[in-house]
Design goal:
The complex is a heterodimer of chains A (about 290) and B (about 375). Chain A has about 290 residues and is of the alpha/beta class. Chain A contains six helices and 15 strands. Classes of the chains: A alpha/beta (about 290), B alpha+beta (about 375).
């Protein structure tokens, strides 16, 4: 157990030191969500990342939070984050304006199985703000459309007011090679679409279960029931991908906060197969 | 033939401190203070707990006089060496407001050159475990690494086992098998008092050369061996590690977690004294004018509610889930993460638990709940003290 030969090879010398990025644009997506479009301000020209990865965002004097990247991996000159204003840091972040600066550390974590999904039907299931971490994968897969089978997006939100990326959803829905279904838990009079939880859409969704990769992001309870529906249709637990969320302070496996069983969400995740999460998701308070 | 063991006489022990100091090390070793043995800066042998021992039991720690003048006649100090390699509070960076927004200022790392005097085998293993946490992954912790690389380690083999010790169960002691520069075994007999010295590195050899020493006689080496054999049979606690991981994975739901939760105060003492617990939190601080901000990293504990807080609430809101997380991490999930247990059998968590919760007892209870018979030599976990 005692090892005299220690490996001392840093990949990043100061992984806890953020870089300063400037806000190029703020887009209000809904009453409580917003998108920050950022550009590096330290001579760096691009911010390469993989779909599914996240950054730590620091608001000066307030604090730091993990937020998934929601931009296009093929446009690394821009860094895009969509966030819901729910806590101290994200509320302060929602008040930032064009020209303000923000601290960024990252990118961290595992990514969506873009390559592995080639030649398969790809089903995206998003709950609420869960569409944001999926969007980079949607961009990538749509950009190489010919490599995939059917592409289906099932998106559920609480109400029509919670729907993110309205314009893009309309564009995607207008394409003949994408299937987009949106459902809301509570409709108002203007709503003409599906009503009910997103899991209701899975039994009827057009995909071949034997040749499907599913990418799921949403509240844990939604992901649990989504997984059950996919398994019922015969999708394998190894073809089902989820992205998990836990408290994080460092994002590099040192602070211990994001542990879930033997996994560190920050470095082993946030994207996991359902096979990895199956048992843990069945337990309470792990 | 290479001389493996040497003898350092008790009268010359001060010279070890002096040589290390002269080599530019800040010597850290056991001192007597606050009613306990505390690892602190050491310049003179007079600061050491000469002739003192500690009595340790679940929730109990007392110093008592020994009937000899042993320098290392105690077991573990409440605080481990963790506080020197992974300090409780570290500033990570500072930031200043500017016209353009803010700028970040990197924190220079000034690691002291420390010599640890009197590291027990369990604590050597704990350091090896933290090495895996902080230096073996994709990222390195610069604070830990810079301190770790500079230390000089004088290990001390245990001359006695404490009431809460179980290093024999964890294969982490009582004899230091590696990871040291010098290792000492203290022999106190009626007419002689000396240290059997084993060299573990070139640095160690150089230090030994500057000290008055002589080759050890076979009888002296044997005396040290016999002592260690005796100690390994004295352990106050036993932990049966067989299939420990699988048992815990099968028992996320077990009534025992409810019963331990009724006693656990969530005080976090166990995590603070644990030599392997590594969790931290960060604090972002600003001055009153808002022109200066900084980030500080502090030790944290999985026993707090904040630890697992995400929007909407804490993931582990019950005491039961937090104790379960801690113990399952130590004895099971740690293997998945770092290929080793997160426990070295030092017994600190048992001694320093205000209500005397005993990890070995909890593990045995869970094992026995699956129908296993209690191990011989161990009281059944169901028999409450």
């Amino acid at each position: 157990m005692l090892e005299q030969e220690l490996v001392f090879e840093p990949t990043v010398a100061e992984p806890m030191l953020p870089e300063v990025f400037r806000i190029q644009r703020v887009k209000h997506e809904s009453y409580d969500t917003f998108t920050l479009i950022l550009e590096p301000s330290n001579g760096r020209e691009s911010f390469p990342f993989k779909a599914g990865q996240f950054n730590m965002l620091y608001v000066y004097g307030v604090g730091e939070v993990p937020i998934s990247i929601s931009g296009d991996p093929n446009q690394p000159e821009m860094l895009v984050h969509t966030t819901r204003a729910v806590g101290t840091v994200t509320k302060a972040m929602s008040e930032l304006k064009r020209g303000d600066v923000i601290g960024i550390r990252g990118p961290f974590g595992s990514s969506w199985p873009i390559q592995e999904a080639e030649h398969h039907d790809v089903v995206f299931v998003a709950g609420g703000i869960g569409l944001a971490p999926l969007r980079p994968a949607l961009y990538e897969i749509i950009a190489r459309r010919e490599k995939y089978g059917r592409i289906v997006l099932l998106y559920g939100t609480r109400s029509p007011d919670d729907i993110l990326y309205h314009d893009e959803l309309e564009q995607w829905r207008a394409r003949f090679d994408l299937e987009v279904y949106v459902t809301v838990d509570y409709a108002d009079k203007s709503w003409r679409g599906n009503v009910g939880v997103v899991t209701n859409l899975i039994p009827k969704a057009p995909f071949d279960p034997q040749h499907t990769v599913a990418l799921v992001c949403g509240p844990e309870v939604m992901m649990r029931f989504t997984a059950i529906e996919f398994l019922k249709r015969g999708v394998s637990p190894t073809s089902l991908y989820l992205t998990m969320e836990r408290n994080m302070k460092c994002a590099i496996g040192f602070c211990g906060h994001c542990q879930l069983g033997g996994y560190f969400i920050c470095k082993d995740g946030p994207v996991f197969t359902y096979e990895q999460m199956q048992t843990l998701l069945s337990l309470w308070e792990v | 033939m290479t001389q493996q063991f040497s003898i350092l006489e008790r009268e010359d022990f001060q010279k070890l401190i002096d040589v290390l100091s002269a080599d530019g090390y800040q010597v850290i070793g056991p001192t007597l203070g606050e009613g306990a043995v505390i690892y602190d800066e050491l310049t003179s042998i007079e600061q050491m707990p000469i002739g003192w021992t500690d009595i340790q039991e679940g929730g109990k720690y007392r110093l008592e006089r020994r009937d000899d003048d042993a320098l290392f006649g105690f077991n573990t100090s409440p605080q481990s060496w963790k506080r020197f390699l992974h300090p409780p509070s570290v500033r990570l960076w500072q930031a200043h407001r500017t016209d353009e927004g803010f700028e970040l200022q990197h924190e220079p790392i000034e690691a002291p050159r420390m010599a640890f005097l009197g590291v027990r085998s369990c604590d050597l293993h704990a350091i090896a475990i933290q090495d895996k946490v902080f230096m073996n992954g994709d990222y390195l912790d610069p604070t830990y690494k810079s301190r770790r690389e500079k230390i000089f380690v004088v290990a001390v083999n245990c001359g006695q086992a404490g009431g809460t010790c179980f290093c024999s169960s964890m294969n982490t002691g009582p004899k230091a098998e590696g990871g040291f520069d010098l290792a000492l075994t203290e022999i106190v007999e009626s007419r002689q008092h000396y240290f059997v010295v084993e060299v573990g590195s070139e640095k160690g050899q150089e230090v030994l050369h500057q000290l008055p020493h002589r080759p050890a006689k076979d009888s002296e080496v044997k005396a040290a061996d016999n002592l260690l054999k005796k100690v390994s049979k004295q352990m106050g606690r036993i932990l049966d590690t067989e299939q420990m991981q699988d048992i815990l994975y099968r028992n996320y739901e077990n009534a025992r977690w409810d019963s331990v939760a009724q006693r656990c105060l969530s005080c976090a003492n166990c995590t603070m004294v644990c030599p392997t617990c590594f969790c931290t939190t960060i604090q972002d601080v600003t001055d009153l004018s808002g022109s200066h901000a900084e980030r500080v990293r502090r030790w944290d504990s999985c026993f707090t509610m904040d630890f697992s807080y995400i929007h909407g609430g804490s993931i582990r809101y019950s005491q039961k889930s937090r104790y379960r997380q801690w113990m399952t991490h130590k004895l099971a999930t740690w293997f998945d993460q770092f290929g080793t247990a997160g426990c070295v059998g030092c017994g600190r968590c048992i001694t320093w638990c205000p209500v005397g919760i005993d990890l070995t007892e909890e593990m045995a209870a869970i094992r026995e709940s699956e129908g296993a018979a209690p191990k011989p030599g161990r009281k059944p976990a169901s028999a409450k003290p």
